[in-house]
Design brief:
about 625 residues, alpha/beta, Rossmann fold, seven-stranded mixed sheet
Length: about 625
């Protein structure tokens, strides 16, 4: 029988012309070495298995230094260009991404969601990432989750066994520590294994109680396919604690824009995009992407989290041509899902034009303030939860800039968490986050002290007065007319919040003074009406360059107003009154309905506290 070279999508055979130029002996050596590499890859895929460029990108996101990430991105760039040479359809993809020089933009994550088409390599990447952690480092613990016990046995446990070092795969009980026993029918004995280096792998499934992993000191966690949001949120609490735990999530979003997808994508920022060769080149296919592109890497609102896509054509071992054939003539939404792992919300956002042109940096805002602004404040009182407060600056041109919010995300965490998907009536409602309760319980005096301090006032304990020499001048303050007119909790019975804010609370018993702070009731309005008014401020023509005549009139200092930035991106207005994101939008509604604007220096009569206000 004549020799038949083994097929391999990466270790390609030389062309007939190349074979003729090599000569028999050189060709024989080449083929022998090639067969040996293929054999090693099959026998020990963890050590010798080929890693597509997408694996390098995902690993770069988990790198601990920018230098390590940059080396991985350079490797990804080389591999992507190799793929282009093998498949002319992919030409230009590497250049469209621009890997090199982006290490500082992608490193440092501990929580990565990988999405993409079926057989794009998501599962193999996760298997190798988990095993490298527990094989190369002693005394590590991995938790691996699947939809059911049988699915875990059939897929995850089989792949983990296949990728273990050959000398460790079937050692049974070895010494006092190691125990690795696996069968095709039952998977690993007891749903776990212990390696000779004392590292462990534990297998769980989503049919178990969400607290099943409590008590374990985990170093790496892998959630595969349709993980319930409750499992992610329970595990997320462990990120950033004493141990550097990595959390990997892999799936194709066939169920649509689930709460799990929302947890990562709502409010995320594009970092890298790629040319999507199966989609029309002249159309925008995803928000923020150039025409003909799809997202490749996004930075989530949580600084430790990011999303990576494994797109069509990136894995030479994938069913690329089969998928391409099935999608020929398919709807664009289906191509985006099946070839690129992209899913979109079925319910549109309330602020469809909001995006990068509406965001200002702190430096840009500071420069605008030097030319003069008029400042306002709006409050949505919260009863027993924290109030939500926003500050606005209006320029002579009539631009509105949201420049501060309280509670702020950095100090208090999230005000609103993605919908849980458990209640059909509240399907679109964001849930209360920790910022709603952290530090709550302030009375009228406490809120006055908070507001004055944020605005730059300083309490002089010796003189028992507020010093406002370096404070902001607030032209007017406005409050929800319904809650503002309600009696304040823990205060004089029957006295409204607005009335109490206008009264003096004298400095006594070691407490600071609560000077009169005057609020107006916001005009009554319907939600739909004021949303439209805000959209009028945000309006511009995105098809034309940004100029003085084509620019929004509503801006946000996004790094200081992260709740607002998120709400403008994902609030739909389709939820109930209990939608936590509505709390963030309500002060904007009060502001626009109050018809506040620029007040010239000659007319400025700021409504500052009037008693002992320095």
């Amino acid at each position: 029988m004549s020799f038949q070279p083994s097929p391999h999508p990466v270790l390609l055979l030389p062309t007939p012309e190349q074979m003729a130029a090599m000569g028999k002996e050189e060709l024989r050596e080449f083929l022998v070495k090639r067969e040996e590499l293929i054999r090693l890859e099959k026998e020990d895929p963890l050590t010798f298995g080929y890693a597509p460029w997408t694996f390098d990108l995902a690993n770069a996101c988990l790198a601990q230094t920018a230098e390590e990430a940059e080396a991985l991105l350079e490797s990804a760039d080389r591999k992507a260009r190799q793929m282009e040479r093998r498949n002319p359809l992919l030409r230009g993809v590497a250049d469209s991404i621009g890997f090199r020089g982006r290490g500082a933009d992608v490193f440092g994550h501990t929580d990565v969601l990988v999405m993409g088409q079926n057989r794009c390599g998501k599962t193999i990447w996760a298997v190798r990432r988990v095993l490298r952690r527990i094989v190369e480092q002693p005394k590590q613990m991995a938790a691996i989750f699947e939809a059911s016990e049988q699915a875990s046995i059939n897929k995850q446990q089989s792949l983990v066994h296949e990728h273990l070092p050959p000398e460790w795969r079937d050692i049974g009980k070895a010494g006092q520590v190691a125990y690795v026993k696996w069968t095709k029918q039952n998977g690993f004995a007891g749903g776990k294994f212990t390696l000779p280096n004392e590292s462990q792998g534990l297998f769980f499934n989503y049919k178990q109680d969400v607290g099943v992993f409590e008590g374990y000191e985990l170093d790496v966690v892998w959630f595969d396919e349709l993980v319930p949001l409750a499992f992610l949120e329970a595990m997320e609490f462990r990120l950033g604690q004493d141990r550097r735990m990595e959390m990997l999530t892999t799936f194709t979003p066939v169920a649509g824009y689930t709460p799990t997808v929302a947890r990562y994508l709502d409010g995320a920022r594009l970092v890298l995009t790629h040319r999507a060769v199966l989609l029309p080149e002249d159309a925008v296919h995803a928000p923020g992407c150039p025409p003909g592109h799809m997202p490749l890497l996004m930075q989530c609102r949580q600084p430790q989290s990011c999303v990576v896509w494994f797109p069509w054509g990136s894995n030479p071992f994938g069913a690329n041509e089969e998928v391409r054939g099935r999608l020929e003539g398919a709807a664009l939404a289906k191509i985006k899902l099946r070839a690129y792992g992209w899913t979109e919300k079925l319910v549109g956002g309330a602020f469809p034009l909001y995006g990068a042109p509406h965001r200002l940096s702190r430096d840009e805002f500071a420069e605008i303030c030097e030319r003069g602004v008029t400042r306002y404040m709006a409050v949505d009182p919260g009863g027993t939860k924290n109030w939500f407060i926003k500050w606005y600056a209006v320029t002579p041109q009539g631009w509105v800039i949201v420049y501060r919010e309280w509670p702020d995300w950095r100090t208090y965490g999230e005000w609103a968490l993605p919908p849980g998907g458990y209640d059909r009536v509240r399907l679109h409602d964001y849930r209360p986050g920790p910022a709603q309760r952290t530090g709550s319980g302030r009375g009228i005096r406490g809120y006055k002290e908070l507001i004055l301090t944020l605005e730059g006032w300083r309490w002089d304990a010796e003189a028992k007065r507020w010093d406002g020499s370096a404070a902001e001048r607030i032209e007017a303050r406005v409050m929800d007319p319904r809650m503002g007119g309600a009696p304040a909790p823990k205060e004089d019975e029957g006295t409204s919040i607005i009335a109490l804010m206008g009264e003096l609370q004298p400095a006594e018993n070691g407490l600071v003074e609560g000077p009169p702070m005057f609020f107006e009731k916001a005009p009554a309005s319907r939600v739909e009406e004021t949303i439209q008014m805000i959209n009028s401020y945000m309006e511009y023509n995105p098809e034309e360059p940004i100029t003085a005549l084509n620019c929004p009139r509503w801006y946000v200092v996004a790094e200081d107003c992260q709740h607002s930035d998120l709400a403008y991106q994902v609030y739909t207005g389709a939820g109930t009154e209990r939608d936590a994101l509505k709390d963030v939008i309500d002060p904007d509604r009060y502001f626009v309905k109050s018809d506040f604007g620029w007040v010239g220096d000659g007319d400025l009569d700021a409504r500052v506290p009037e008693v002992r206000a320095g």
